[in-house]
Amino acid sequence: MVKKKFNLADYELVKITWNDAQDHETGWTDLSKAIKHKMAAVVSIGWILSQTDQQIILVGDFIPEDGTTSRITIIPKDWCQKITTLEEMQNE
Q1: How far are the Cα atoms of 7, 35, 82 from residue 45, in angstroms, in the given order?
Q2: Are 56 and 13 within 8 A, CB to CB?
Q3: How many CA atoms lie within 13 A of 3 on its CB side?
Q4: Which residues contact 11 (CB under 8 A, 6 or more apart)?
Q5: Which of 2, 40, 44, 64 is deepest in the core (most CB within 10 A)?
Q6: CA 77 to CA 74: how far, in whole Å?
Q7: Could you read off the pLDDT tens digit of each residue along the chain, which spans 92 residues?
Q8: Model's pTM, two decimal places?
Q9: Residues 83, 21, 76, 49: is their CA dihedral positive or negative?
Q10: What are phi and psi of 64, to 5 degrees?
Q11: Long-range contacts for 31-35 (Cβ within 8 Å, ≥24 apart)?
Q12: 52: Cβ–Cβ under 8 A, 6 or more apart, which residues?
């Protein structure tokens, strides 16, 4: 099976600021403490592999020669606070 090579020019490099669900310690917790729990504020940087109205698939690492990737994050679009397009480095 021949894998598609990963061409950076085909993908947008972005910084996404988003709120993630947060899990807290298990066990009994006083309600006054529980109500103070917050979502996790996250900043992710990577290339948008694909997106729909519901989600963005972001990839952080790649091997151009064989088309493999890692650090794949699927972010629900309605969890995104801000999406900023980043400039590619000119002198690679």
Answers
A1: 17, 31, 12
A2: no
A3: 11
A4: 47, 48, 49, 59
A5: 44
A6: 9
A7: 555 666 777 889 999 999 998 887 788 888 898 888 888 999 999 999 999 999 999 999 988 778 788 999 999 999 999 999 998 655 45
A8: 0.79
A9: positive
A10: -60, -35
A11: none
A12: 77
Q: Are 80 and 56 in contact (CB under 8 A)?
A: yes
- Which pLDDT does position 43 carry in this prediction? 97
**88 is written with which tokens?**
């590619």
Amino acid at 89: M
User: Within 10 Å of residue 63's Cβ, how many Cβ atoms?
Assistant: 12
Residues β-bridged to residue 20: 40
